Every structure is written in structure tokens, then in C-alpha cells.
Amino acid sequence: QITEALLKERDKQAKWNGIPLLLQKLYEHSHPNSDFSQCQSILKEISPLLSMEAMAFVTEDRKAAQESTFPNTYTFDLFGGVDLLVEILMRPTLITQKKKQKISDDLIKDCLSILYNTCICTEGVTRRLAERNDFVLFLFTLMTNKKTFLQTATLIEDILGVKKEMIQLDDIPNLASLVSSFDQQQLATFCRILAVTISELDTGSDDKHTLLAKNAQQKRNLGPSRAEINQATLLNIPGFIERLCKLATRKVSETTGTSSFLQELEEWYTWLDNALVLDALMRVANEEAEQSSTESSDESGLANTSTRTQLPQSMKIMHEIMYKLEVLYVLCVLLMGRQRNQVHKMIAEFRLIPGLNNLFDKLIWRKHSTSILVLHGHNQNCDCSPDITLKIQFLRLLQSFSDHHENKYLLLNSQELNELSAISHKANIPEVDAVVNTDRSLVCDGKRGLLTRLLQVMKKEPAESSFRFWQARAVESFLRGTTSYADQMFLLKRGLLEHILYCIVDSECKSRDVLQSYFDLLGELMKFNIDAFKRFNKYINTDEKFQIFLNQINSSLVDSNMLVRCITLSLDRFENQSDAKVAEVLSECRLLSYMSQMSMRMSFLFRLINIIHVQTLTQENVSCLNTSLVILMLARRKEKLPFYLRTLQQMEYTEKYPGFILNNFHSLLRFWQQHYLNKDKDSTCLENSSCISFTYWKETVSILLSPDRTSPCAIVSYIDEAYMDIDRDFSEE
After folding, report:
1. What ranges does the record give for the region Disordered, renumbered to this chain (predicted)?
2. Predicted local confidence at residue 378, as pLDDT
3. Most buried residue, 101, 212, 260, 439, by most Cβ within 10 Å?
4. d(CA 470, CA 481)
């Protein structure tokens, strides 16, 4: 509506670079009946003005970029450019005539890249686009076109990243045929977009949310969440999981060599939101040239040609790593979702595990060549290099794959499965059903299965490596569930116990996360296994070593309580056995002798109850409550419960604070009832890990919570009336 003269007059002063005038022309040429032929040339004039700013934004340090201004993109948006482009793109969808208007691919491309550049540089544009649901769903329909696929994908990813409400994949028109039209490369890019739609929004800090808040949240959300609905939608797309498994397991050499080098560069460029990619590639080229020239100084003439042919290879590997990252992430989320069993079945059938096993040395845990491509401004070991992220993603997948599921035996090869059977026969115990029922045509092939490969790299990992945590978690999830002697022996034979003790004691590991994962793994490895305690004693053979081990346990009971629980349970079982070998280990093993002292068990019990409160319980520390219950259930079996409660009361008096432990414990147990007696709660984990029936857990809690002050097993009998503080209700503050 502003006159052309006025715009011209203000243009120089305001440094608008003619953008408003160009927009006015664009508006005139894009009326409903126009053929858009002029639009293209107008956009060609606007585009460079914006892309220069976007380049500046990406190459400058982000922080500096936020402070500097990007006048062109701002002007473009201010004069309605963004809305106009959205209107042009969506115009064909509004026209009902027989003859649909066709917008050329180039015009779509230009519109998308201008929108993307404006989103990058100008605050709030992405958010505004995200609020237009019709536009977001429309963008998905543009992905069917190969020529505009990448621009569309990049813009969608940006928009979904800021969208407040998660989109419903169900709403995307013809989703199944859209996915089936993608080639494998596009499917990987699509996985990157899917990641946002299937992950719960705050999973990052899951362990940190208090259980009170989570339980309240669950009461509010009765139906499945949007993420869960989206996961189900994906699983219903024919062939989707099969294609993901193929993508995850294809070798670098299988990638189609048809796409030209330049096209690959362009894609690569879009992937890395980083204008220094070329720079990095050239660095790789030079390094490889130097390497080949030092290796063959006589044939230095060949060095240049080898660089030319090698350059795309480095890129291919990097490309493949980035694709696999996205795919493994999606598979991992689906494995942890509601349809877990269905996903498990498919993943096994499509041989994901043997496929990853074959890629292990060449790609996943490949030797770090000097020429790893590193995103600008990061060093090779920081957690955002693609190589590192791929390893972590791979370990997370293994963890969710083997956690409490019998398919975990697919991580072994046939010889290793035979070894498990042999261990069972030798020990004269029945084979585990899951081992017998494992379909041998789906297990790993080659000299080693994935589990043994993982153990190998785990032992070589440098002390301060961030992978140690994930490696230990993955191996521990293989042992989780009902304790299997054969599984433990399989790992003990491969020196796992000594490796863990070396890390805890000799290298005096300091990282809390790594320590916790090692203690958990050690607990699963040693539980009820007399051979493991014998090996422990052989390794921890001096008082000095034993003291370091105890210091590590005591430095944080939240981290080590699962190990304390394992030792307590094992000791109880060994004491009830009349076997000469067991008796010998019981008398010699430092660890068992230490735990058999009543004062030690009481000290653990006192501290376990003292470090948690109902208001601060999380998924991570609730195990302390269950460990304290295990100690008391074993006491109840031996009819020692009153003695333990009286000792706790005396300990309170010694601390000059009567009632503070027992009142807290009373509240914790009432919370326990609310939490675990919920119909959705899975109690089999508690049963499997302790070999104590859930009924016995429930009974013990009821007895402890009895209001009868004359009962010798009721907590209230040990709190003086004056110090009684047990009737408060929990609230979710």
C-alpha cells in the first residue's frame, strides 16, 4: 500500500537495499491468476542479499551473531516477505480448478531457501511458521519431490525444533506413500526429522524428575502421549523398520556411487549447518596426501592422484556415520516405547544385530584416523563429533535391546551360545529357556559376537573416556533380569570382573557416572555367584586394596547401593547352603566377612534411609529405598526385624535426634505403597533382581507400617509419641 516513490526515497537512507520494492513487484506478479514466470527473476535478486547474511551467521561465532544485526532479512520479514512466500508456496493447494497451477521446482527451491535463511537470521520467524499447522503439514508434501527434498527437510527440521506442540504424524497427508517414495539417503534425513516427533519432550532429565511429580503427571495424562501415538503410526508403515535395519547395517561400499561428487557436497553442506565443511575436507585431503607421500616418497607422483580418489571416500564414511546416527536413534526410541515387543521381533527378523556386528571394526569402532572430520571449533574428543555420537548411540541401542528381553542372546554367535550351554551342563543346572529357544539363523556370525567385541574395546578404553559409562550400561543390561549363572560365567571367563576392579580400585576412578555404572555391573556380575566372590578375593588381596574399594563404595551410596544389595542377598543365600566350596569362600572372602558383621549392615541401613526423602526421590535414588527394604526383608526371614528396628532407634539417640530416621522411613514406605502398588507398575523387576516374591515385599511393608504400637515389627512402636511425625500427606511441590 505504500507508494513506490516513498519506498524509493526512503530506501537509501534506511539501507533497505531495494528489498521492499522487490517485494512489491513480487506481490503484483503473484496474484491468483498469474503464471509466476516473473517471480523467479525477482527472487533471484532478493536471494543473494539474504544468503550472504545467513552465511555470515553460520560462520561467525553464534554468540557474536546473535548480537550483530541482519538488516536484509529483518527488512524482508518486516515488509511481509515471509508471509508472501508461504502464500506463493501454498497457492496450488487453494485452487480447485481442474487445471492445477504448477509451480516450478526452482521457484519452490528459492522460496524455501529464502525462508530458511530468514529463519536463521531473524528472531521469531521460525516460531511464527511453526504456529501455522497447515503450512508445517504442507511442507511434508513437498518432500515427495527429489529436487526440493533437502531444502524442505532442512526447513522442517528447524521449524519442528521450536514448535511448542508436537505434530501428529497421522495428520501428514499420505504418510506411508511419502515414506515409500524416499530413497535410502532421504529416509535417513527423514529420520532426523522423526526424532523430534517420537521422543518425549523432557526425556533428557528423566532420572532427575522427582517420582512425586512424575506420578502426578501420570494421573493427569491418562491416554498415550503424542510421542507414543507417533511411534505407533511409524510402526504401521509397511516395510519401515526393515528399511531402517538395512540402512543401519549397510556397508560404506554399498552406498550408491551414482550421485555426483558435487551433489554429495551440497547435501553434506546442508547436513552440517556449517560453512567450514569445505575447509575441513581440504584438511583431510592434505593430511591424506601427506600420509601417502611419507609412506611412499619414491612414488610421490602418485600422491596427488590418490588424494583425488580418496577424498570422496572420507566423505562417504562420514556421510554414512551421520545417516546411521539418525537411524539408530529412531530404532532406540522405538525399542524403549510401548510397542517394544513388536519392534524387537522385527529387528531380530531383519538381522539388525548381525549387521551391526559386521560393521563394528570398520565403521562403528574404527581406528581413529587422524583425518576425522571435526565440526568447526570442536576438538576430536568433544561429545559432538559424529564419530563419538555414533558410538554412544550404538551403545544405547545395545542397552535397550538386551534389557530384560530374551532376544539379548542374538548378541552372541553360535559358538558362544554353545559355550553357554556347556557352562550350564558342567555346573549341572538346566539351560536357560531363552538360550535354547534362540533362533540360530538370526545370531551374529563371524569369529565374535557383538557382546564379546564390546568387552574387547571396553578393556582398551582410556581411563577418562566418556564411553566407559555407556559400555558398562550396555553389558549390565545383558545381565539384568533373572540372574543367570551361565551368563555371569561367560563374562567372568573373559576377565570382566578384574577389569572392573582395576578401574574402581587401581585407577581410582573419580567420575560419579562411570563409578555408578561399574558398581551396578559388578553387582549383576557377582550376584549369587560364588566363583565371582572367589575371583574378587583373589584380586583384592591386600587390606589396602580392600580399603580403597570400601572408600569408593562409601563415597556415594546412591551410586553403589545396588552392589550393597547384591552382596547382602548373596551372603544370605550362601549362609543357607551346605556346600564345602561355599563355606571356604565365606570364611576367606574379605567382602563377605565384612558384610556379615551386623554393625556394618546396620551402618548401611541407617545411611541408606538417611540420604533419601519422599520429596527428593527420583528414578535414580529410589533404589536406596529398595535396598534398605531388602536388608529388612532378610532380617524378617530370620525373625530379627524387631532387633534391627530397635538398633535404628538407638542409633537415632546416639545422634541426639530421636525419631528422625524412623519418621522418614515411615513416610518413604507409605510412598512405596502408593508407587509400587499402582496397577501399571511393573513389579517383576523387583522380584527378578532380588529373588524375593513381590508378595513378601508387600507383606513386609504392611507389617512395618502397622499402626499397632504394641507390634514388635511396626515402626511406630519405636518412635516416642513426642517425636511422632508420620501423618503428613505428600504433595507435589
Report:
1. 288-308
2. 38
3. 212
4. 19
Question: What CATH number does residue 151 fall under?
Answer: 1.25.10
Domain-located, residue 713: yes
What single-letter DSSP state applies at residue 707? -
- What pLDDT does 636 receive? 97
End position of a domain, from candidates 112, 140, 165: 165
Nearest CA to 88 out of 140, 26, 181 is that of: 26
Alpha helices in 576-640 (DSSP H): 580-588, 590-596, 598-610, 622-637
What is the three-class DSSP state of 618?
strand
Averaged in consecutive runs of 10 residues, what is the pLDDT profile of the chain (733 residues)? 66 64 72 71 73 63 52 74 83 62 80 83 86 92 88 89 89 94 90 90 59 81 87 95 94 61 52 43 52 48 43 69 90 93 95 94 69 39 68 94 93 97 96 94 95 95 86 95 94 97 89 94 97 97 96 95 97 94 94 96 96 92 96 97 96 87 95 86 85 96 96 95 73 45
SS3 state at 511: coil
Conformational region of residue 36, where left means phi above 0, alpha means psi within -120 to 50, and beta covers everything else:
left
Q: In terms of Cα–Cα distance, which of 530, 475, 529 is closest to 499?
A: 475
N- to C-terminal Cα distance for the chain? 54
Query: Mapped to the 3 state alphabet, what secondary structure does 240-288 carry?
Result: HHHHHHHHHHCCHHHCCCCCCHHHHHHHHHHHCCCCCHHHHHHHHHHHH
Separation CA 579–CA 570 (nearest Å): 14
Residue type present at position 729: D
CA distance 358 to 40: 49
Amino acid at residue number 640: K
Q: Helices 184-198 and 149-162 meet at what angle, rounded to 10?
A: 10
Q: At what angle do helices 19-29 and 37-59 cross, to 10 degrees?
A: 140
The answer to whether residue 233 sits within a structural domain is: no
| 3-state SS assignment for residue 634 | helix
For 454, the 3-state DSSP assignment is helix
Sign of CA pseudo-dihedral 217, 221, 222, 224 = negative
Q: DSSP for 467-508? A: HHHHHHHHHHHHH-SS--HHHHHHHHTTTHHHHHHIIIIIS-
Domain that holds residue 32: 1-165
Q: Using CA atoms, how far apart are residues 231 and 24, in angstroms rounded to an integer?
A: 45
Is 41 contained in some domain?
yes
Q: If you count them, how many residues does the chain have?
A: 733
**What dihedral do alpha carbons 517, 519, 524, 530 form, nearest 10°?**
160
Evaluate whether 160 touches 294 at the Cβ level (below 8 Å): no
C-alpha cell recorded at residue 313:
571416500
CA atoms of 597 and 533, how far apart (whole Å) = 17
Within a domain: 706: yes
Total domains, the chain: 2
Q: What does the radius of gyration of the chain's CA atoms come to, in whole angstroms?
A: 31
Asked which of 110, 134, 165 is the last residue of a domain, the reply is: 165
Residue 651 in contact with residue 602, Cβ under 8 Å?
A: yes
- Please classify residue 1 by burial: count the beta carbons closer than 10 Å to its beta carbon, then call 0-12 exposed, 13-18 middle and 19+ buried: exposed
pTM across the whole model: 0.85
* Nearest alpha-carbon partner for 527 in 494, 559, 558, 573: 573
Residues 6 or more apart whose Cβ sits within 8 Å of residue 518: 468, 472, 500, 503, 504, 509
- Please tell me the number of Cα atoms within 13 Å of 440 on its side-chain side: 6
